[in-house]
Amino acid sequence: MNHAISETNSAAKKKNRFSYGIVLIAVGLFIYLAFGLNTEAGLDAVFGLNLAGSNAALIPDLTVPALPVVYLMTLVAVFVGAYQMARGSRSTGWLVGVIAVTFIVAFLMWAAQGKSFNLTGMLSSSLVRATPIALAALCGVISERSAVINIGLEGIMLIAAQVAVLVATITKSLYLGLFAALFVGGLVAAAHAYLVIRYKVDQIVSGVAVNIFGAGMTAFVSSRFMQSSGAALNNSGTFPIISIPLLSKIPILGPVFFENNLIIYLTIILVVVMHVVLYRTPWGLRTRAVGEHPKAADTLGINVYFTRYVNVIAGGVIAGLGGAYFTLGSVGRFDEAMTAGKGFIGLAAMIFGNWNPVGAYMSSLIFGFADSLQVKLQILRIPIPSEFLLMAPYIVTMIILTGVVGRAIPPAADGQPYEK
Amino acid sequence: MTHVLELRGITKRFPGVLANDNISITLREGKILALLGENGAGKSTLMNVLYGLYQPDEGQILVRGKEVQIHGPNDAIAQGIGMVHQHFMLVPVMTVTENVMLGVEPTKHGVFLDQEKVAKRIREISDEYGLEVDPDAYVGDLPVGIQQRVEIIKVLYRHADILILDEPTAVLTPQEVEGLFKIIHTLINAGKSIIFITHKLKEVLAVADDISVLRLGKMVGSADPKQATTESLAALMVGREVALTVEKEAAKAGEAVLVVKDLFVRDEREHLTVQGVSFEVRESETLGIAGVQGNGQTELVYALTGLLQAEAGEIHLTGESIKQATPRRILERGVAHIPEDRQRHGLILSFPIYDNMMLCTYYKEPFAKGVSLQQKAIFENAERLTEQYDVRTPNIYVHAGTLSGGNQQKVIVAREFSRPIKLLIASQPTRGLDVGSIEYIHSQIVKKRDEGAGVLLVSSELDEILALSDRIAVMYKGQIMAILDAKDATKEQLGLLMAGIHPTAEIRN
Fold first, then answer.
1. What fold characterizes domain A121-404?
2. Which among B92, B103, B112 has CB closest to A300?
3. What's the ipTM?
């Protein structure tokens, strides 16, 4: 009897193991067919490792023969797949990692054959492009950990972006602009919190309302006042790049991590601080308890409503920082709908990162990578229409949401109003 | 003698309901006060007043002779009052340590959580009171009995010396109840005083020093456990004489209605929880399936009612195989099902009673004609059934979710029994119900048996199994240990079988 059970159980495992092996081999074959057959023999791919204008120490570029590397990636994928089918029982994450790395490396070889491709530049811009996504994701993490869904963070970021540029232009102070953005972000979030906590309005409905309000309001202010005034209201300038002494001299790492502007540094600091607060302090413990089982927290004398207000408003301040990034941290002017769905991508990053700050940041980097790859590939003029390349970050969002959401576990009380 | 706690004249009104009407109770130091009452008698309201979750409209609370104001759980905790809730107030995804310290977290450097300190204190409490638990375990991974220990530790960690245990045995297996009683005695020996809320009479007589009985929001009397009997307590609690034993005649078993052969069922997590079960249920006969919860009974019932596809084996209902059949097909063949989880599988809580009363046959005459529902027939049916089955409800238009547990169960019984049935599958039919409702449901089950239906009764309450069954099958780890004649079965014998041990008794099959 017991024998029969263990047999059927191992059969299920075997099936799983088999299907991963097949996927890996299929990826290997695809790499060969799509890139291997289309890469000319003898061409080198040059990967630039220095960034123009950076004060990092110079190192030679990386020159690799394109076709052999593509073949190598094919072999790696097929071998790992065969090993997996034969006897492997690796974790899913490890296997997905192999698929991603072999595919991306082979793709870059094909794209950069006979040309030069600035790798450090792409990594640096990945981090930059990940920043607004990460800030949106962090806003989502902090409010959903206390069980309030804030789908309105796209709208909050738009409003904050506009307020930041207006205040900064008028006062001629970037810092005042930044504070105004944080304040407005917190204010709009407070309105959302008031509606959903005090009046138990459906959280999605309230969030959608914030988005519609944000899009409409900023479009109105922009077309009515900012376009016509020219530079008078819509030219704030941007935060300067701050090079960290010594650290910025390190090749590759220096330009990527240590030559950025204030908002990007703040984001990284925020990830660490949020992680510590959430998992190492009483406030974090209470926040998580309120998100998982508010009634339990209530019976222990924790004020559920207060905890939720504070977290949602703090989330709004973070989204405000994300909004300020679009203008003060990036282009120095406001354009209509300039957030371009980054808030929603941030929500996907939050889910992919399993509602935890570090995870959310890491998944934001994946989206940032997809975004910056798309830009670099357009410059390389590869034979894929640019419209398709523009879709890349959104396609990655959809793949991740369909593939991962089933497994991610949200806070148990997420989205539910609390009744005493 | 000191009264560690006294409630004087507590009155609490809710819109339209007088939940507590001038209730006074006293708790003696180092003693166990049992608060007895049916569901809805006002026990929980009274305790929520004491714990600060509700504010009383009138009355005083005295702790050690001094009047205190309790505005919230924090005030209650400060007065040394701790509550173990019926539905555990634990966060499953957190560790035992995190759950215990929540709300009163000690810190290092004033900022960071000091988990080690709490874990150490938990081990001390564990040793002192015999509450063994691993501080680093995740609560969601722990069995219910251990989760309850965590709740008790939580209360002790806050230095409570007055413990309120709200229906602590409702979710426990018989073995876990034994363990809980031991813990209670250790606590009493350590000088704690305990209020024990329950509606189970035997438990009251087993542990209590004093008994106060509530009925419909009023104190109706106290009793001395040395002199009281289960009958006298039941009469006090319900307000009339209650038959605690079921009157039934010997079975006149006929032909087999349900035949199950070598059944294997896999649960949702792919575990093989039913492993080669065979039995038959005959006309006019009750087969009881005893066993500690979680030994495959749930999945067995799911397979018989079509909620789960059996892995292997045969199920025949009056000669026809129903192994592949859908739930509707099985219902139409004359099976009535009183599900284990009445709120999930038995009722649609947000539907009014009249809709719940016709859920099995809504698509047939007289409830439907073509594509339209016949409101008139539906209302008439509901009016008739609420009357006939004594469902206590303001009217048939209220949502099923607003009814008490006993009345919800009566709605299910009314719906299932109002159709012609050949087989009744009743799974934990009286769990969490009050004495009055239990009496009623039991008599209805016996009535169906006498009318000729086969009854499959699944229950983890041995008393219930012994009271109703003609034959008893004991399930353990997905298999049937033995099938006994109810006349010959003893509690001891069944208890051993439930623990997986074969007593050297004659086993009939």
1. ABC transporter involved in vitamin B12 uptake, BtuC (1.10.3470)
2. B103
3. 0.83
